[in-house]
Design brief:
187 residues, alpha+beta, Immunoglobulin-like, 2 domains, 4-stranded antiparallel β-sheet, 13 strands, rod-shaped
């Protein structure tokens, strides 16, 4: 992070020097720039005017990149309703890159995810319910405001996702499953 900031700062300060030096060599002190910036009146001549102009243009363009990125830790909890599925803990896994987690024997799960924050915008990861141990299929859940869909999981057409920003928690609605066997997998 520090390295990137240093490189961006060098670009911001040194890049406008190239056209400023070229302007100075070709047209020594004949150009002039004047204006108002945040209620400050300014007037520069020659290559320095070109440098100031390019500096502020680059500064404005790099503002989005210079913003700091914060991260938050959120808790995700939910339940897979699989009372008729024997040995559920050995059949289904949950993946939130880069970690893989297991579902408890009662079908419940809870884990932490890292959520990136860029100003007011949150970037949520996606989690994947993985049936690959039995069926070689998996479905992705988006953890933002949108509900995920589970078209290939038996009797589970939609999963509701509820975000609670105050507690930094996400609750995934129950995911009902029918008994799973090699013959019941949908591809």
């Amino acid at each position: 992070m520090m390295n990137t900031f240093f490189v961006q700062s060098c670009i911001l300060v040194l890049l406008p020097l190239i056209p400023a030096i070229i302007l100075f060599k070709i047209f020594p002190s004949t150009g002039e720039g004047a204006g108002e910036f945040w209620k400050w009146k300014w007037k520069f001549g020659g290559a320095f005017a070109g440098y100031v102009l390019l500096f502020f243009m680059l500064w404005g363009a790099m503002q989005e990149q210079l913003k700091t990125r914060d991260v938050e830790v959120w808790t995700v909890r939910g339940n897979v309703e699989a009372s008729r599925v024997p040995n559920i803990a050995n059949l289904i896994g949950i993946k939130s890159m880069p970690q893989t987690l297991n579902i408890e024997t009662d079908g419940s799960y809870e884990f932490k995810v890292i959520v990136g924050r860029y100003g007011d915008r949150l970037e949520f990861p996606r989690i994947m319910i993985d049936l690959s141990r039995v069926c070689a299929i998996s479905r992705v859940i988006r953890l933002d405001d949108s509900p995920g869909t589970f078209a290939t999981l038996q009797a589970a057409s939609e999963v509701k996702v509820r975000r609670e920003d105050a507690t930094r928690s996400i609750e995934v609605g129950p995911i009902p499953l029918e008994p799973i066997g090699l013959g019941s997998c949908v591809k």
